[in-house]
Automatic annotation (TrEMBL):
UniProt keyword Transmembrane helix present: yes
A single MF term (Gene Ontology): ABC-type transporter activity
Domain ABC-2 type transporter transmembrane: 31-228
Entry protein name: ABC-2 type transport system permease protein
CC per GO annotation: ATP-binding cassette (ABC) transporter complex
The organism's place on the tree of life at top rank: Bacteria
Cell location: Membrane
Claim: 4Fe-4S is one of the keywords in the record: no
Membrane protein topology class: Multi-pass membrane protein
Organism of derivation: Leucobacter komagatae
Length: 263
C-alpha cells in the first residue's frame, strides 16, 4: 500500500480510534514529506550546517581578538541560530512552496486531524536542524579551544527551541499571503544575525532593543542554550523557560487555528 493510499483510510468514530488514526497519519505524513523532498533535504542540511559553522568563524573574523567570553558566546550561539533559522526561515518558505504548488490544499482533503499536519512538518524540520547544531558546537570548541559542560537537559531544550521557532514560522506562513511570508522570513535573517543577543551579550544593544528582547523569544532561547552547553559560564532563569514555553504554546495554537480556518 502506498503512502498516499494509506493516508486516505476511512475515519474512526471512537476516541481511541481517532487518536490511533492521528498518530498513524502523522507518521505517514512524515514519511510522505521526507520522500517528497528527498532531493532537497540533503542540500538543506548542508546549507544550515554551513550557516552554523559560518556563524562561529565569521563573527570571529569581525571581532578580531576573541577573548574567552566572546568565544563562548560565539560557540554556544551558533546552535541557537541554526535552530531559529530553520524554524523562522526555511519552514515558512517550504510552507509557501506547498501553498503555491497546491500540495498544502490537497493534504487538507485527507481525513486526518489538522494537528497531524503540523506535527509531521515540525518533526521533519526539527530533525533537519540537528546536524548543524552538533557540527556548529564542535567547530566552536575546536576553533576557540573551549570546553563545554553540557547539562542533561540540553537536548530537550534544543527540541523546545526548534519546535517553538518552527511553530512561529509555520503560523505566520499559514496566516500571511505567500509574498509577505517570503519578505518577512528574509527580513528575520538580518534581525536574527545582527540585532539579536545570540552570539554577543545583550548589553551591546541599545536600551529600547534590549527591552524588546525581554518579551521576544530569541534571547530566552539563546540563554537556555548557552546555559545548557556551558553551565560553568552562563545561567538561564525560570523566566527564560516560561517565555519560550509561552511562545511555543501560542505559536502552535495559531498554526492549528490557521490550518483549521483554511481547511
Amino acid at each position: 500500500m502506498s503512502t498516499i493510499t494509506a493516508l486516505q483510510t476511512p475515519k474512526h468514530t471512537s476516541s481511541a480510534g481517532r487518536a490511533m488514526q492521528g498518530l498513524r497519519g502523522t507518521l505517514l505524513l512524515i514519511q510522505w514529506q521526507v520522500r517528497r523532498q528527498a532531493q532537497f533535504l540533503p542540500l538543506m542540511a548542508v546549507v544550515q550546517t554551513a550557516l552554523a559553522v559560518s556563524t562561529v568563524l565569521g563573527y570571529g573574523l569581525l571581532i578580531g581578538d576573541v577573548d574567552q567570553e566572546a568565544a563562548l558566546f560565539l560557540a554556544t550561539g551558533a546552535p541557537t541560530i541554526t535552530l531559529i533559522v530553520i524554524g523562522l526561515v526555511m519552514t515558512p518558505q517550504a510552507m509557501v512552496q506547498a501553498r503555491t504548488e497546491g500540495s498544502a490544499d490537497w493534504l487538507r482533503t485527507l481525513p486526518l486531524p489538522r494537528g497531524a499536519f503540523l506535527a509531521a512538518d515540525l518533526t521533519v524540520w526539527t530533525a533537519l536542524a540537528l546536524p548543524g547544531l552538533v557540527l556548529g558546537t564542535i567547530v566552536g570548541a575546536l576553533r576557540y579551544d573551549i570546553t563545554y559542560q553540557p547539562a542533561a537537559w540540553v537536548l530537550p531544550i534544543a527540541i523546545l527551541i526548534s519546535l517553538t521557532a518552527a511553530s512561529i514560522g509555520y503560523a505566520f506562513a499559514a496566516l500571511l499571503p505567500p509574498v509577505i511570508t517570503q519578505l518577512v522570513s528574509q527580513m528575520l535573517v538580518f534581525l536574527l544575525l545582527l540585532f539579536s543577543p545570540v552570539s554577543f551579550p545583550a548589553a551591546n544593544l541599545p536600551e529600547w532593543l534590549r527591552a524588546a528582547h525581554e518579551v521576544l523569544p530569541i534571547e530566552p532561547m539563546a540563554n537556555l542554550m548557552r546555559a545548557g552547553l556551558a553551565g560553568q559560564a552562563f545561567e538561564a532563569s525560570g523566566r527564560d523557560l516560561f517565555t519560550v514555553l509561552a511562545w511555543c504554546v501560542a505559536a502552535v495554537a495559531a498554526a492549528v487555528f490557521a490550518l483549521r480556518r483554511r481547511g
